[in-house]
Request: fold
Amino acid sequence: MEYFPAPLEHLVEQFAKLPGIGGKSAQRLAFHVLSLPEQEAQAFADAIVDAKKNVTLCPVCRNFTAGGLCPICSSPKRDESLLCVVADPRDVAAIERSREYNGRYHVLHGVLSPMNHVGPDDLEIKSLVDRVAKGDVQEVIMATNPDTEGETTAMYIARLLKPFDVRVTRLAYGIPVGGHLEFADDATLMRALAGRQEI
Reply:
């Protein structure tokens, strides 16, 4: 039995399709949109349509851009010899927030996941190999998540890049800042010990 008019039910259903949004959150968002003044609701709808129409993939790094090269690829200040490979455009934003990295990126748009039927042809791996084959890149930093799929993807790409005489590194990870050793699992402790640095 529907409790709300069909257009409102439809709006709730659309919000519920978003990742991390359950039924109650979808309902809350739908009610919020209905409470907006007409102009703000139209601006919200226009922003969605505009983003969908105008956000494309950078022809070089495959990150999101508003047409042409992304700001990172078009910047002459970025180190072209350093390439950071990430699974998702959100990972680029996360690394950029650190303000420690000044190289370029390559976005895979996912990770290898046989269980989810995601293979090498479903990712931006061929374009990565083509970039490295040109010879400008000296180091490739694999910055995929430290889970099974991320590790598998990093190892697969490292094997593909072996013939190009390029250094392939992996992000260090282990005990987080503010974490406690007693709560760390065995794999995390092992990685932290293996990645230790001189102080």
About this structure: The first strand starts at residue 56 and ends at 57. Strands lie at 56-57, 64-65, 79-86, 103-107, 139-142, 167-170. DSSP finds eight helices and six strands in the chain. The chain has a mean pLDDT of 89.
